[in-house]
Amino acid sequence: MITLYIEPNKIEEFALFEEEMPHWNKIIKSGIHLCLNISDEKLDAKITDEYDPLYIAYNSSGTMKLPVALGGYIEQVKEDLSQTIEKPNGIFVLDIDNDAAIDVQNKMGMAVFSSANVPEDLFSKTFFIELDKNAEIKDGWKGIIHFNKPLSNSLVITDNYFFKNEDNGLNRGLSNLIPFINAYLPDQLEIEYHITVVAPNSKERYNDWWIKEYGKLVLAIKQLREYPINIELVLAKSEIHKRRIVSNYVVNKSDKGFDVFYSNNLEKVKEENDFEYLEIFSNLDNSGTKHFQSAIKLINQISKHCNDISGYVAVNKNQMDRSLFGCNANKTIKNRLLN
What we know:
About 35% of the residues lie in helices and about 20% in strands. By secondary structure, it is an alpha/beta fold. Helix 1 crosses helix 2. The N and C termini lie close together (about 10 Å).
């Protein structure tokens, strides 16, 4: 759940200074879940006081959600910022030292900010590129994702055709996966990064074939970063027909899937395609669906699908149409975004 955990004085500042902080004013009024570092009694007093900034903001907006009081929890988090990882889609604006906030960003890939130093344009970046057939892109996926990497510690790929295509016997999805991961993941982290690929089996490959290919994936991924990376495969047809990659604060789209490059030439585009990168607060002026709402819906859909496959495999073991690799020992899904 994408939720903003925030100090009451800071949300009041965002509410009062709309012209000075327009992006944050839009964030708190966007319909995002709001949790305040305040007691129930004090929150009740604020939302019933017609002169209180929170009362004014809530009653003047048709989309702002009624905040929830979570003073006890937020104070615990401030004492131990490592607890933020339990809310992988959480955004924390807290009365903490700026160096401590930056430390959590770098070590855990979490959106934790000092209330004294919040970025005005938080998660507002977008990027779009048309990919022409047989176009040559220097450095392949790194040539596409050439911008500053987003805060993240987990991502999920869902694409019903990701493992379906081959070039001269080489699976195009598997061939593209390693360079994509290398382009997308942060350079440094001090926790395990979680990756889950949700896609059907390729040409009804047997379990032994996948065991071998998964082993190759694990070995290749270990070479990419100094921090640990867990790669999880959920091999089963999904009812989610959109091709998407979702990480903590970003949704990525592709028209014809993420197996963009030829298996034997990872700088040459196989067919006409595109790639779109959308941070969750990049369309707050849109009167329709916001990107953060799309991300929540997508994560919930994928989580349900993966848990259904997990339950099946726990009873029946890996089968050709439904199998798991890289999950927990009890066959539950490991990716923190899906739990």
